[in-house]
Design a protein that fits this description.
3 strands; elongated; three-stranded antiparallel beta sheet
């Protein structure tokens, strides 16, 4: 393990910058737009009532766009709404609304935590 030492004033300046960055991030997260939210495949399958295989077929055929991060696949809620509107998946629009509500609850629960809780 390497030990790095810095002056106390440099340390305080670094902490101040981190605090301001944390506050900036918290301020930007307060505006919730569900269409810009990204959810994982498990949530998509649960709320749209489709199987993982069906979701894979939709990805492979190019009917839904996705993003992969750290080996996990994520889908935008806006894309899920398009999928339902085009009737490529037989599910109710309320399913996506329910997914948005759950996602918002998760975001709200994270916002109540301090930077040291994360």
């Amino acid at each position: 393990m390497n030990v790095i030492t810095i002056e106390s004033e440099a340390y305080k300046a670094l902490i101040d910058k981190l605090d301001s960055l944390f506050q900036f991030i918290n301020l930007n997260q307060q505006v919730f737009n569900p269409d810009e939210a990204w959810v994982d495949g498990e949530d998509v399958c649960t709320y749209l009532r489709i199987s993982i295989r069906t979701l894979q077929r939709l990805r492979k055929s190019g009917k839904i766009t996705y993003s992969t991060l750290g080996g996990k696949t994520y889908y935008s809620i806006a894309e899920l709404k398009k999928l339902l509107e085009s009737r490529k998946v037989r599910s109710a629009v309320e399913s996506v609304d329910e997914l948005c509500d759950v996602y918002k609850e998760r975001i709200d629960s994270l916002q109540g935590k301090t930077k040291y809780d994360l």
